[in-house]
């Protein structure tokens, strides 16, 4: 069921004014006819104002109602021509709405400007921070990541290339530090022994991570420590996330037909709900159109009454 957010009290006030005005015209018409029958010449003038004003306001109220609901002639049950325009053309109206939304309001340029708005990124920045932390710290995501990396990293750690890489790095360290170089010459620092120890340690830690919950918890702690060191206020970090955010949103929006989506959403709403929603809007925002029908009608009746009476 669709609800409109308009103030109910304001709607009731407008309904009261509309009904009171209509009642005044009816009373004026009845009083004028009564006075005219009793021989008072001003009775015709009053009745002309009441009848014309009543016809004017009732005609406009009826016209507004006829937009949304088909009306039938009593007894014979034939639909009044022109009534229920919105109900009869529901699909055409939805297509028009979708086209306007797609071609005029949500153009690619408008979407790019909206996504590039600094205020938009600032408003969603806290959400992005939370989602990044959640993405990297959830056990399901870490487990899936480990599953993807398990085979290639296991093969890499078991390969001669990994051992050679560690050995070359240790040799560079040894040659760049005088104390280590001296320790190597006297036999206290042996590259081969340390290489085997590091390779064995890496393999053991990797198997530990793959074995179960303890490994996942350790990875979580390491990732959390790494993310906690990132300053989300740094300009470089903000630019990276802003560019990523804009690129993702733009690609998503270009793939989604927002006009068709809006049409489908409105099409799923029951017809009675749509008509009721539009009718409530009309009663509120077309109030003065209905009232001016009565005002103009009463002025015409006044002029006609003065013409015929005087």
Describe the structure.
The N terminus is likely disordered. It contains 15 helices and no strands. The protein folds into 2 domains: 147 residues, no CATH class; 139 residues, no CATH class. Helix 4 runs antiparallel to helix 13, helix 5 runs antiparallel to helix 12 and helix 8 crosses helix 10.
Radius of gyration (CA) equals 40 Å
Q: Mean pLDDT, nearest integer?
A: 71
Give start-end ranges of low-pLDDT stretches.
1-6
Strand content: under 5%
- Secondary-structure content class: mainly alpha
Outline? rod-shaped
State the end-to-end distance: 56 Å
Count of strand segments: 0
Total helix count? Answer: 15
Oligomer class: single chain
Question: Helix fraction?
Answer: over 70%
Return the string of H and E elements. HHHHHHHHHHHHHHH
Q: Give the total of domains.
A: 2
Main pleated-sheet profile: none
Summarize this structure as a short list of keywords or feature phrases.
310 residues; mainly alpha; 2 domains; 83% helix; rod-shaped; disordered N terminus
Write the layout of secondary structure elements.
Blueprint: H1 8-37, H2 42-68, H3 85-88, H4 90-105, H5 108-115, H6 118-137, H7 139-158, H8 160-176, H9 178-185, H10 191-211, H11 213-228, H12 235-255, H13 258-267, H14 271-285, H15 287-309
Short description:
With 310 residues, the chain is mostly helical. The chain has 15 helices and no strands.
């Amino acid at each position: 069921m669709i609800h409109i957010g308009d103030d109910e009290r304001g709607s009731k006030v407008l309904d009261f004014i509309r009904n009171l005005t209509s009642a005044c015209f009816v009373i004026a018409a009845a009083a004028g006819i009564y006075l005219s029958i009793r021989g008072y010449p001003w009775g015709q003038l009053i009745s002309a104002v009441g009848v014309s004003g009543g016809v004017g306001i009732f005609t406009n109220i009826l016209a507004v109602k006829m937009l949304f609901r088909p009306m039938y002639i009593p007894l014979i049950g034939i639909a009044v021509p022109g009534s229920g325009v919105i109900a009869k053309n529901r699909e055409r109206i939805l297509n028009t709405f979708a086209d306007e939304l797609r071609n005029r309001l949500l153009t690619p340029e408008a979407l790019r400007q909206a996504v590039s708005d600094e205020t938009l990124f600032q408003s969603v920045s806290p959400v992005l921070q939370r989602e990044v932390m959640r993405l990297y710290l959830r056990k399901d995501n870490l487990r899936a990541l480990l599953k993807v990396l398990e085979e290639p990293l296991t093969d890499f750690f078991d390969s001669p290339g990994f051992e050679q890489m560690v050995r070359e790095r240790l040799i560079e360290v040894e040659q760049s530090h005088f104390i280590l170089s001296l320790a190597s010459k006297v036999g206290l620092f042996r590259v081969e022994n340390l290489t085997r120890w590091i390779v064995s340690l890496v393999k053991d830690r990797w198997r530990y991570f793959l074995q179960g919950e303890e490994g996942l918890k350790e990875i979580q702690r390491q990732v959390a420590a790494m993310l906690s060191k990132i300053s989300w206020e740094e300009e470089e970090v903000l630019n990276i996330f802003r560019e990523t955010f804009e690129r993702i949103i733009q690609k998503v929006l270009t793939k989604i037909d927002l006009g068709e989506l809006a049409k489908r959403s409105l099409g799923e709403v029951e017809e009675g709900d749509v008509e009721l929603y539009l009718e409530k809007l009309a009663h509120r925002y077309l109030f003065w159109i209905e009232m001016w029908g009565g005002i103009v009608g009463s002025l015409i009746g006044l002029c006609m009454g003065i013409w015929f009476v005087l």
